[in-house]
Design a protein that fits this description.
alpha/beta
Length: 155
């Protein structure tokens, strides 16, 4: 949660497809880090998405990209009440999207971030709370709380 700022939380995504959702979340991150190229983020993320869907089931997708000279991991969260077709293996529409950007030079950071978010998603209680959090502040607080109970450090 130290990588997730409330400015990067969208509780009602405008986009209805993978490209527009990733673009919306990348824009939120680029607004916080002016050196970050949102278009590059979109290209890298979609290239990874085309290789294999990052939907992990149960309405969750974790699109991610490694970006050179990114100072630290950055995460954006978006929720789509209607759901988005991420071509998930369980055919469920995706309602929760975490866009995860990690420094290209630190490959382990990506594993660490994916593991931390997956731990939230595998808890039914926490996942339900995430769906009910109505404001960006509530989303961040919920993730901070979850993080405290599931400190994962992938070495």
């Amino acid at each position: 949660s130290d990588f997730l700022a409330k400015e990067a939380v969208v509780t009602s995504l405008a986009g209805a497809d993978v490209r527009s959702v990733v673009r919306e979340l990348a824009g939120r991150l680029a607004a916080q880090a002016p050196a970050l190229d949102a278009e590059l983020v979109l290209q890298r993320t979609l290239r990874r998405e085309n290789e294999m869907s990052t939907a992990v089931g149960h309405g969750l997708a974790l699109p991610h990209a490694r970006i050179e000279s990114l100072p630290h991991t950055m995460i954006a969260y978006g929720r789509s009440p209607e759901g988005i077709d991420f071509k998930a293996f369980d055919n469920q529409p995706v309602q929760h999207v975490f866009l995860i950007l990690t420094p290209l030079e630190k490959p382990r950071e990506q594993l660490r971030a994916l593991a931390r978010i997956s731990s939230i998603a595998t808890s039914e209680v926490l996942f339900q709370e995430l769906g009910e959090a109505e404001t960006p502040e509530a989303v961040c607080a919920m993730i901070r709380t979850a993080d405290a109970f599931t400190p994962l450090d992938v070495q």
